[in-house]
Write a structure and sequence with these properties.
This protein has two domains: 2-170, Rossmann fold; 197-314, Rossmann fold. It is 31% helix and 23% strand. It contains nine helices and 14 strands. The protein has helices at residues 15-31, 45-53, 72-85, 96-109, 212-221, 229-233, 264-270, 286-290, 299-314, and strands at 2-5, 35-39, 58-63, 89-93, 112-117, 126-130, 135-139, 146-150, 165-170, 197-201, 224-227, 254-258, 275-280, 293-296. Strand 10 (197-201), helix 5 and strand 11 (224-227) form a beta-alpha-beta unit. It is globular, with a radius of gyration of 21 Å. It starts with a strand and ends with a helix.
């Protein structure tokens, strides 16, 4: 049996859930195992529909009234007990929650743990990204049972309509001694981790007052906004938008870097993007040599024309 951890957000499953579902279903075709979703959040009818659209036939909701906030220590104990009882394996996404839960679950059950997986295994040999995506490592679980976390946006999502059933298992457990007093969203924008398109700006923007062209381009593309480390250090933009080796590491379908030279630390955090477009006035910038497409020119002239062109196409 293969379980899939379903991460919910505001009464909906996050995009990475559909990746893990597709991955687990494709993996199960070779092992002839059943795939079951496991969720510790409230599930409503909208989430049912989402699961059915991506081929998941069964979800188990582990329920306790106190599960209103994420608690890595508590959730990992519950998940570990559930999969150990049934000698099941489990697939996580390598998101913030996955990074907290997956190694804990593996440790509690003495299962093999493999993270940052990027494809289906051959003879149970998995591929994973290492050295900030500069190399691929081949690894094999040493134990019969395993916990894996797949890299976000690394596996295709396949839609297939099925009928999904849900069962609720009430969990009677002492809740964590840590109490959440309040929680606040950093912003109403698209999460960098989940974004399929990211528009980032660097010091080439010359100041925070010019960030409007970044936000306008991101809005018209339905993208998240990001920045380089110097921009965050200068307080032009909040630190949660900093992408790079020392910031958030991302791998969207499209990454547009505007006015960013492309230092090696920045490249290490974005080089797993499927397509990289660079807009820079310097043809010798490191990013120009590392990208898929480059536009050499002044961003204050290029970006407004790009925005106008996209608007015309959308009409």
């Amino acid at each position: 049996m293969i379980y899939v951890y379903l991460e919910a957000h505001e009464l909906g499953f996050k995009k990475n859930c559909f990746e893990t579902i597709t991955y687990a279903l494709d993996l199960a075709k070779h092992t002839q195992e059943e795939v079951i979703g496991i969720c510790l959040s409230h599930i409503d009818s909208n989430m049912f529909t989402q699961a059915e659209n991506f081929g998941l036939k069964k979800i188990i909701q582990l329920y306790n009234p106190g599960f209103s906030n994420f608690d890595a220590q508590l959730f990992s104990k519950i998940i570990a007990h559930k999969i150990k009882t049934e000698q099941a394996n489990i697939v996580f996404s390598n998101t913030v929650q996955g990074k907290y839960l997956a190694p804990r679950v593996a440790m509690l059950n003495h299962y093999s743990f493999l993270n940052n997986i990027i494809g289906l295994p051959e003879n149970l040999v998995f591929k994973k990204n290492v050295y900030s995506g500069k190399a691929i490592q081949m690894c094999k679980p040493l134990n019969t049972n395993w916990v894996i976390a797949i890299a976000s946006n690394s596996y295709h999502i396949t839609e297939q309509k099925v009928s999904c059933n849900i069962s609720v298992e009430n969990i009677d457990i002492d809740l964590s001694k840590i109490k959440c007093i309040s929680s606040e969203k950093t912003s109403d924008t698209i999460s960098l981790v989940d974004a399929e398109i990211v528009v980032a700006g660097g010091r080439g923007l010359k100041g925070p007052e010019n960030w409007g062209i970044i936000e306008e381009l991101a809005k018209i593309l339905g993208a998240a906004t990001a920045c380089s480390r110097p921009v965050a250090d200068l307080h032009w933009r909040p630190h949660h938008e900093h992408v790079g080796q020392t910031g958030i590491q991302i791998n969207p379908n499209l990454y547009i870097a505007i006015g960013i030279s492309g230092a090696i630390q920045h490249l290490a955090g974005v080089n797993r993007s499927k397509h990289i477009v660079v807009i820079n006035i310097d043809p010798e910038a490191p990013f120009v040599k590392a990208c898929d497409y480059a536009v050499i020119g002044d961003c204050f002239q290029v970006v407004p024309k790009l925005i106008d062109a996209i608007k015309q196409v959308k009409k």
